Amino acid sequence: MMRRDPSWPSNVELTEDLDAPDALTPGWNASSVALAPEVVRAATADRRFESTILAARLDGSTAGFVTLSRCLMNGFPATIFDPACAAPDLFTDDVGKPAGYLLIGGTDLVSGPVLSAALNSFEKQLVGQALVDGAFAKAHQAGLAPAALYVRDQDIAYFSGSHCEAVKVDEFATVPVRGWDSYLAGLSHGRRSVVRRDIKGLKEKELGSEIGSALELIPEAAPLVVAVKNRHQIPDHPRLVEMRLATWAQMDVGTRFGFSVRDTQGRLLAASFGCHHDDVLEMHEIGLADSPHRHLAYVEALVYSPLRLAHELGCQELQLGMGSTRPKVLRGAKTSPVWVVGRTKGNG
To answer: GO terms for molecular function, please (predicted)?
Structure first.
């Protein structure tokens, strides 16, 4: 067991505990539904990684946890998950095989601690930083290079006490949710014109959108998702995408939706997926067909259709994720930095 530095005014104890997610299932806080306790517990069974969970107990109760993972393959599943590719200016040492890294806080496109919803703001910082400090200490003890990939700006303060470095690698886009008229009124004149031009184009081309079951949309959407990944030099296969999305769609946390856009012949031009949890609709994946209406289908599936649903559900925020920042900002998204945090073995 690791005990928190005595300079902290409260007693935080750290220990490895694979059952920690179960203790937080009734109430948790994290930067993404991808870090929900149920999701993390399932991810620890991924045989591509050797994973454990570092848990924090505050005054005797489970207060949070962070995952610690080593990739067991000869190469990472994709270059975006390779710290040296995600942040080459940070990871300058020759770490060697993927197993030379300790991935802190997740193996998805988001990393960070998961904290009890019962904590106040001071306790969250206390526990979150204790977990990160403990994770970096474990990496140092094991002779591994610690790396936290795609840390959202709301969590970066937890990494302030670990003698580590952070580099900005992307931006995370969100749209405040409001009624359609209020949404338009909140845009600048130029961006309002962009939205109105989009809506006019969707009507003129008679592109129809539907919201339904994520699970039912997946078989048809999988090839379109692969096409998008291939455009970004990320190898994938429709059957693997279908299996992965089906697992995601059947997670117990939140409600999973599928958004589809079709032409007048019923052909699927775009498909996206999102999860409604608490007051957030978080977009997960998008697929696009190669068609003359690609751009219109894209903005309808990613922004407009989810925004209408988010308003109906009473959400406060629509999360559009990383990448393709400009088209999102032109349609009212706000952005915040996304970080990769680490300290190579050479930097001790």
So the answer is: transferase activity
pLDDT at 56 over 60: yes
Q: Whole domain around residue 223: which residue ranges? A: 178-315
pTM reported for the whole predicted model: 0.91
* Three-state DSSP class for residue 346: helix
* pLDDT at 340 > cutoff 80: yes
* Cα separation, 63 vs 116, whole angstroms: 5
| CB distance 67 to 110 below 8 Å | no
Q: Does residue 331 lie in a domain region?
A: no
Q: Are strands 49-58 and 12-16 parallel, antiparallel or unpaired?
A: antiparallel
Pairing verdict, β 208-213 and 255-262: antiparallel
Residue 329 in any domain: the answer is: no
Q: Is residue 327 part of a domain?
A: no
The whole-number pLDDT of residue 87 equals: 93
CA distances from 84 to 95, 100, 151, 169, 342 (A): 9, 11, 16, 12, 10
Would you state the pLDDT for residue 11?
79
The whole-chain average pLDDT of the chain stands at: 91
